[in-house]
Design a protein that fits this description.
alpha/beta, Rossmann fold, 2 domains, four-stranded parallel β-sheet, 13 helices, 13% strand
C-alpha cells in the first residue's frame, strides 16, 4: 500500500499518515531468549523511571519537521583493531557509539537505514524493522514504530544495535541507559551525507567493504544521471508536488537539492518566506509560475491525466509538453540507495524534452 506524506519526523521531514498493516515478525533463535529476558527486565526498570511512551499513531497535522543534528563526512566511523577493545567506535549524531561485538540482532526504526543495511550486505543481521520499512521485500517488518518508539517493544527483540533517524520520546537515551548501542542517523542534507551514512553502517555492522562498494556505485550512478542531462536543464523550471494539497519543496531541502543538481529552477523557492522548506502553494500560484516540469508523488492516486484535468492546468507548459511525471514517493523522499532512481527519472524527462 502507498502512503501519503505530511510534514513530520522521519527523515525527509514528511511522514506517512495512512498506516500500513505490517506483517508479524517472530523472534530470532531460541539461544537469545535468556539475553532477551534480562534486557526486558532492565527495560522495565528504565521505563518505570522515565514513564511509558505514547502509543498513538502519527498525526496528519501540518507540523514543523523535527530538528536533528547532521553528521558530517569528517566524523567518519572507525573500527578499533585492538583484540581486547570494542568491535567498533562509530561517530553518529548522538556522539561516539561503542559497539562491543559484531551485531547479529539489529533493529531499524528508520526506513532509509533499513534500505541501506540491506544494500551494504547487513540484511541477514537485521531481526526487526519498523512498520514503514517495507523495502526490500524480505525486510522483517513488525509493528514497531519510529514515530512513537516503545522501549519494551524494541527490547523484545534483544537488539545488539538499534538504528534511528530521530530521537523521538527520548528513545536514544533510554536505549543507552540499558546498554543497547544506538546509532542516530538523521535526514541527509547533502548527497555526501548519504554515502557517509552507508559507510557508517558498514563500520558498525562489520560490512565496511560492502558499504564502500555500495556507496561508490551509488555516487557514480548519480553523477552519471546528472552528466547525461548536461546543461539541457538550464533555464527550465520545476514543480515538485508532495500531495494533492499542493505542499511542495524548496531548494533548501534534500529533494530540492536533487533538482538543483540538474540546474533546474524551483518555482516553490519564492513562496517560502519563512524558510520552512515545505511551502503550501495555491493552484493559482502554480498556474502563474507555469513550470516546464512537474513531478507528483504516487502517494494519493494522482496520475498524469488527473493533473491535466485540474482547472486551468491543461494549458501549463509541463502538461502541453508531456513533462508531467508521477514519481514513487518513497524513492523521492528517502535518502537511501534507491534515490538514484529519482535522479534518473529527472534526467530522462530532461533528455526527452530535448530529444
Amino acid at each position: 500500500m502507498k502512503v501519503c506524506l505530511v510534514p513530520g519526523p522521519e527523515g525527509q521531514a514528511f511522514h506517512p499518515f495512512i498506516l500500513r498493516s505490517p506483517e508479524d515478525a517472530a523472534l530470532e533463535n531460541s539461544n537469545r531468549i535468556g539475553r532477551s529476558s534480562a534486557l526486558l527486565a532492565a527495560l522495565a526498570m528504565v521505563a518505570a523511571a522515565c514513564g511509558s511512551s505514547a502509543a498513538g499513531t502519527p498525526s496528519s497535522a501540518e507540523a514543523a519537521p523535527v530538528t536533528t543534528v547532521q553528521t558530517t563526512a569528517a566524523q567518519r566511523a572507525t573500527t578499533v583493531s585492538e583484540p581486547d577493545g570494542p568491535f567498533a567506535l562509530v561517530e553518529a549524531a548522538n556522539g561516539t557509539v561503542e559497539i562491543p561485538s559484531r551485531p547479529e540482532a539489529i533493529v531499524s526504526l528508520s526506513p532509509t537505514a533499513t534500505e541501506m543495511l540491506f544494500a551494504i550486505g547487513a540484511g541477514d543481521q537485521v531481526v526487526a524493522v519498523d512498520e514503514f520499512s517495507y523495502y526490500p521485500e524480505d525486510a522483517p517488518v513488525t509493528e514497531l514504530s519510529g514515530f512513537t518508539p516503545n522501549l519494551e517493544s524494541i527490547g523484545a527483540y534483544a537488539p545488539d544495535l538499534v538504528v534511528v533517524a530521530n530521537d523521538l520520546d527520548g528513545i536514544v537515551g533510554a536505549l543507552e541507559a540499558v546498554d543497547v548501542p544506538v546509532l542516530l542517523l538523521p535526514a541527509a542534507l547533502e548527497f555526501s551525507d548519504v554515502y557517509e551514512q552507508m559507510r557508517q553502517l558498514g563500520e558498525a555492522t562489520g560490512n565496511s567493504d560492502g558499504a564502500a562498494d555500495a556507496a561508490a556505485v551509488l555516487e557514480a550512478e548519480i553523477q552519471a544521471a546528472i552528466d547525461d542531462a548536461g546543461t539541457l536543464a538550464e533555464g527550465l523550471t520545476v514543480y515538485h508536488e508532495l500531495d494533492p494539497t499542493l505542499y511542495s519543496i524548496t531548494s533548501d531541502t534534500f529533494i530540492g537539492r536533487v533538482y538543483d543538481a540538474f540546474g533546474l529552477v524551483n518555482i516553490a523557492d519564492p513562496a517560502d518566506a519563512d524558510g520552512f522548506g515545505y511551502p503550501q502553494l495555491s493552484p493559482e500560484y502554480v498556474i502563474e509560475a507555469n513550470p516546464d516540469l512537474i513531478f507528483v508523488t504516487d502517494c494519493c492516486g494522482d496520475t498524469v491525466a488527473t493533473v491535466a484535468e485540474r482547472p486551468g492546468w491543461d494549458n501549463l507548459s509541463a502538461v502541453e509538453r508531456g513533462s508531467v511525471t508521477v514519481i514513487d514517493s518513497d524513492v523521492s523522499s528517502r535518502w537511501g540507495p534507491r534515490i538514484v532512481q529519482f535522479f534518473r527519472a529527472i534526467s530522462d524527462v530532461i533528455l526527452g524534452l530535448n530529444g
